[in-house]
Design goal:
By secondary structure, the protein is of the alpha+beta class. Helices cover about 25% and strands about 20% of the residues.
C-alpha cells in the first residue's frame, strides 16, 4: 500500500507563514519527546497525583485495558488555558507549559490549513470548516503517550492499541517509532512508514460524517507483532474536534433519527460514554440514560465508529 506524502513547501505563498511555523514545530519534536520521556520516567505516585479529568487534562494510565496498554498525559482545553488548570502536576512548570501551548498552537495552524484544503477541493469556501473549529468545547487535545516495554505480555484480550477510529475531525500524529497500522478498504492492515520530519494525518469520524463519507475515517491500531513487549514507543497525537454545536451535515448526509441535523455534541457524547464509561451491561442505551435511544441506534449504524463497549479489565504495567 502506497501512503500519500504531501510536502508543505508546495503550498501557495499565502500559506508561507503557517508552513514555516509547522516546519519549526517539526524541528522541535525532539524537545517535546524529551519532555514526554522525562515525565513518564517519574515515579507513579507523582505522575498519578493529577488524574485525567473531563476537560480532558491530566495523567491517564500505567494500566492496561481492553483498549490499550499505555500511559498518557493529556492537554485539552481551548488555546491559552492550560496555565489556568489545577489538574496539571507542578512538574509542568511555567516554561514547560508555555512550550506545550506553543506546540499546540502550531498544530492548530496545520489543522486549519488541512481543513481549508479539504473545503476548497469539495467546492466549498476555503474557511468553511474553520468557523466550527474555534477551539470551544470540547477543544483540541494534545496528548503524550508511552507504550511501555513489559517483562511479559498481558493476556490476549489486551492489545497494544485496539483498532479504532478517532472521534473528531483530524488527528495529527507525531512519532519517531514504527508500529502504527491502518486498515485499507479491503480490510488489510498496513504498517505506516516512519519518515523523518513527517506528520501522519488521520481522518476522524466527525469529518467523515460531515463530508457524507467522502473522506473516510482512518481505522488504526498497534499490534504486539508490530510493537513487541520488549520495546517502548512514544507518540504525540493532536486530536482536533469541531465545536459541540456544529451540524455535521452537508447535502450528502441525512438528518439524525429524530429528523434533526446531527450535531457533533450527539456523536461526541455517545463515543465518550462508550469508550470511558464503566459498562457491565451490553445494552448501552440502558446504561447511559442521557443518550437518546434513537440517536444511539442511528449512530451505531453510520459505519464510521468502532468504539464498542469496553470491558474494564485492568492490569498493572
Amino acid at each position: 500500500m502506497d501512503f500519500p506524502i504531501i510536502s508543505l513547501k508546495h503550498f501557495s505563498s499565502q500559506f508561507d507563514e503557517i508552513s514555516e511555523n509547522i516546519f519549526k514545530a517539526s524541528q522541535e519534536w525532539g524537545r517535546m519527546f524529551d519532555q514526554a520521556r522525562d515525565f513518564f520516567d517519574l515515579p507513579i505516585d507523582i505522575k498519578s497525583k493529577k488524574i485525567l479529568n473531563e476537560d480532558p487534562v491530566g495523567y491517564d494510565g500505567h494500566t492496561a485495558t481492553t483498549f490499550a496498554a499505555s500511559e498518557g498525559m493529556s492537554f485539552g482545553l481551548p488555546a491559552g488555558q492550560l496555565s489556568k488548570s489545577d489538574n496539571i502536576h507542578s512538574w509542568w512548570d511555567r516554561e514547560r507549559l508555555a512550550e506545550t501551548e506553543a506546540f499546540k498552537a502550531q498544530c492548530n495552524d496545520l489543522n486549519l490549513m488541512m481543513l481549508s484544503c479539504f473545503a476548497v477541493h469539495m467546492g466549498l469556501p476555503k474557511d468553511f470548516f474553520e468557523a466550527s473549529h474555534s477551539q470551544a468545547l470540547p477543544g483540541n487535545t494534545f496528548k503524550l503517550i508511552k507504550y511501555p516495554k513489559m517483562e511479559e505480555q498481558p493476556r490476549d484480550l489486551i492489545p497494544r492499541l485496539s483498532e479504532h477510529t478517532d472521534w473528531g475531525s483530524l488527528t495529527l500524529l507525531f512519532t519517531e517509532s514504527p508500529g502504527l497500522e491502518v486498515r485499507d478498504p479491503s480490510n488489510q492492515w498496513h504498517e505506516v512508514p516512519v519518515i523523518p520530519g513527517a506528520i501522519t494525518v488521520n481522518i476522524g469520524d466527525a469529518l467523515s460524517l460531515w463530508t457524507g463519507k467522502q473522506l473516510k475515517s482512518t481505522m488504526h491500531r498497534i499490534s504486539w507483532e508490530k510493537l513487541p513487549r520488549d520495546q517502548d514507543r512514544y507518540s504525540m497525537p493532536y486530536f482536533v474536534h469541531p465545536n459541540l454545536d456544529t451540524n455535521l451535515r452537508l447535502s450528502a448526509l441525512p438528518n439524525d433519527a429524530n429528523g434533526q441535523p446531527l450535531k457533533h455534541r450527539d456523536y461526541f457524547k455517545v463515543r465518550l460514554r462508550l469508550t470511558w464509561g464503566s459498562v457491565e451491561q451490553k445494552d448501552a442505551t440502558k446504561v447511559f440514560g442521557d443518550v437518546d435511544s434513537k440517536t444511539f441506534k442511528y449512530l451505531s449504524t453510520l459505519g464510521v465508529a468502532n468504539a464498542g463497549i469496553l470491558e474494564s479489565h485492568t492490569v498493572n504495567l
